[in-house]
Specification:
Structural class: alpha+beta
Strand order of the largest sheet: 2-4-3-1-5
Strand content: 15-25%
Number of strands: 5
């Protein structure tokens, strides 16, 4: 089961209160690891790669365990990046290019506004943190 999108922009959740892209503060959290990976290598990872790399780092898995663990990891349903804390709480939009690779942009940036207005991209909202 894949979580990858192509030509898609996930906008910050409607109930996200961040006015700019915030750096997640808690070391080792899902948000902090996702943020570090996306900013270090924009468009370097697909959604599947990003989610799995966060899983590997949080569990401290060895290189030799990766192949078997990846099969097991994606053998279970995984939430897509619409549920990422970056879009739900920290004010980031996630752009997936034509090859499915991801980059993050703060809501305060011109590129975020440009991507959110593009007619050739599928625009999807981040999941809400609370029910309304």
């Amino acid at each position: 089961m894949s979580t990858n999108y192509a030509d898609t922009f996930i906008v910050a959740s409607a109930d996200c209160t961040a006015e700019r892209g915030l750096v997640p503060g808690r070391a080792g959290s899902v948000a902090q690891i996702q943020h570090a990976l996306l900013l270090a290598d924009p468009y370097g990872l697909t959604s599947d790669d990003l989610l799995f790399e966060v899983h590997v780092r949080r569990r401290g898995l060895a290189e030799a365990e990766r192949a078997a663990e990846r099969a097991a990891f994606f053998g279970r349903p995984q939430a897509c990046l619409r549920a990422s804390p970056l879009v739900k709480r920290y004010g980031w939009g996630l752009h997936h290019d034509a090859a499915g690779r991801v980059a993050a942009y703060g809501v305060e940036t011109e590129i975020y506004r440009t991507l959110a207005a593009r007619g050739d991209l599928r625009i999807v909202p981040g999941m809400r943190s609370r029910r309304t």
